[in-house]
Write a structure and sequence with these properties.
The chain has 511 residues and is α+β, with helices and mostly antiparallel strands. Helices cover 43% and strands 17% of the residues. The chain has four domains: 1-44; 55-66 and 75-107 and 129-240, no CATH class; 247-403, C8orf32 fold (Roll), CATH 3.10.620.30; 420-510, Translation Initiation Factor IF3 (2-Layer Sandwich), CATH 3.30.110. The longest helix has 26 residues, at 2-27. The chain is elongated.
């Protein structure tokens, strides 16, 4: 009986509490709403229901661009805050990437980064900004009725040797990459994606296109997408800078600058010499300016001559690509957000930071360095962590001793056995010397040497040899004056100390 009495008392107390709760809810309906929201949140909130499809936010909301109300923009801000939190769990940095991507690069700690005073503040890289707006099914149906996919990029392919970010993507990501590239190239700004992707995947895909293609200098670092409750993107919006409005003339000016540097580099004997020539040309032509217009583009560097780290790096990347030298755009942290390059030479990969080398009239402190050399100043971030590690040794330098490395061996003019009075500083004197040495040696097989000062003169001479210009003219003149039948030659340049180049001429004159 005592047990039954206790049970009845408990039921009576519970009944009284329920009655009191009902009375409170009737008086305070806001409490009811809060409880209802908590109970039904998992079932009604798409970000909680499917974190893998939670879009990534960043930049201005798309509703603001489309003229949405302040209330709508506030709602979008609240949505994106929740999306960012849920994306942390969904590992968005891997979204749309191949599952076998491995980050062999070992990142140093930010706490170990020390930025030298002479390059402090010479950064300026701006991260990709993608804004995402959720829309209802009616708006999505409207988009599907009026938009197409634009240029799909079907039939395009991109060699992983030159386009490493493309190679990082899975098959779906590569298809959307080709579509974004094709539409960007055609200045086609708004289209539906050709594949079912969410906004986390889209960000990585857009970053891959942007990082691989500096030649698309009119494409801005911002884009937008609209997605439905499942997370599927239904619209992609690209953003272009002002050069898109006058693209033919902008391309002509840009290509002219590119071709001028490429022409000077092509005649040099190897990829290292070409790389160094481009490095020096950019430092000579560009001024660092944090406020430069379109400063994330190669156009700002090459045409306007003023840019930040992103412009230096993208110009360097595109010129080396044109020379057939794999060169990648690398982004990360160097006291602030920063961009530099990774270059592939015959024995491996190297870091190059032309921005930081553009000081004190031009230096090589950050030219062709290993990851270990960069460990106290640069950290890769974003997709750049999947680029190859930099461990090359043969071409560290040419001033690598200042970074603790082994400086490539270079002979002096004295070591080469050439007197200083045989150093030529203009092409006419050089060609006249070649003529005189052939006349002196006459018919037969022999080798003679001379030295020219400066990489520009060396490049000009090599280009003339390859194109049949002044160099064969002076030799033909010698053949005619000797009364010989013909002359063959082989020219081998060697880089010496102090910017000098030794030319070895192996000559055969046939009677």
């Amino acid at each position: 009986m005592k047990v039954l009495r206790k049970i009845l008392y408990a039921l009576a107390v519970l009944l009284a509490l329920c009655c009191a709760f009902i009375i409170v809810c009737a008086v305070r309906p806001d409490i009811t709403a809060r409880i209802s929201g908590a109970v039904h949140r998992d079932a009604e909130d798409p970000e909680v229901r499917d974190a893998a499809y939670a879009p990534q936010s960043g930049g201005a909301g798309a509703s603001e661009r489309d003229g949405g109300s302040g209330a709508e923009r506030d709602a979008d801000s609240a949505d994106t805050a929740g999306q960012e939190a849920s994306q942390t769990d969904a590992a968005p940095e891997k979204a749309g990437l191949r599952s076998d991507n491995a980050a062999d690069y070992v990142a140093p700690s930010e706490a170990d980064i020390v930025v030298p005073d002479d390059v402090r503040g010479k950064n300026g890289y701006r991260q990709i900004e993608g804004s995402a707006q959720q829309i209802g099914e009616d708006d999505a149906d409207d988009i599907r009725s009026r938009l197409d996919c634009g240029h799909t990029g079907d039939g395009l392919d991109f060699d992983a040797v030159y386009y490493p970010y493309y190679a990082m993507l899975d098959d779906t990501g590569r298809h959307v990459y080709r579509q974004i590239y094709a539409n960007a190239d055609a200045v086609y700004p708004v289209f539906m994606p050709v594949e079912n992707v969410n906004s986390a995947q889209l960000r990585n895909i857009f970053e891959a296109v942007y990082n691989d293609h500096p030649e698309l200098f009119w494409v801005d670092t911002a884009y937008a997408c609209k997605y439905i409750s499942s997370g599927q993107c239904v619209e992609i919006d690209l953003s272009f800078n002002r050069t898109a409005q006058e693209l033919d003339s902008a391309r002509a000016a840009y290509d002219g600058e590119i071709d001028g540097i490429v022409s000077g580099a092509q005649a040099l004997p190897d990829d290292y010499e070409k790389e160094k020539y481009v490095h020096d040309q950019l430092i000579d032509r560009i001024d660092y300016n944090a406020g430069a217009e379109m400063n994330q583009s190669a156009y700002s560097a090459l045409v306007n001559g003023q840019t930040v780290c992103a412009g230096y790096a993208r110009a360097f990347q595109h010129i080396l690509q044109k020379l057939g030298i794999p060169c990648y755009y690398c982004t990360g942290y160097a006291g602030e957000s920063h961009a530099w390059n990774i270059v592939s030479l015959d024995d491996g990969f190297y870091n190059v930071d032309t921005t930081w080398d553009d000081s004190a009239g031009g230096v090589y402190d950050y030219f062709n360095r290993t990851d270990r050399d960069y460990a106290n100043s640069h950290i890769r971030q974003e997709l750049s962590v999947y680029l190859p590690p930099c461990n090359g040794q043969a071409h560290r330098g040419p001033e690598a001793a200042s970074a603790g490395g082994a400086e490539p061996a270079q002979r002096s003019v004295y070591d080469a056995g050439v007197s200083k009075d045989r150093i030529f500083t203009d092409p006419d004197s050089y060609y006249q010397d070649c003529y005189e040495q052939i006349m002196q040696n006459g018919v037969g097989d022999y080798t003679f040497y001379n030295v020219v000062a400066g990489v520009d003169l060396a490049a000009e001479i090599m280009e003339n040899y390859s194109s049949g210009g002044d160099a064969p003219d002076c030799m033909q003149r010698a053949v005619d004056d000797l009364g010989a039948a013909y002359c063959t030659w082989e020219i081998r340049p060697e880089r010496l100390e102090d910017g000098m180049y030794l030319f070895s001429h192996t000559i055969h004159v046939e009677q």
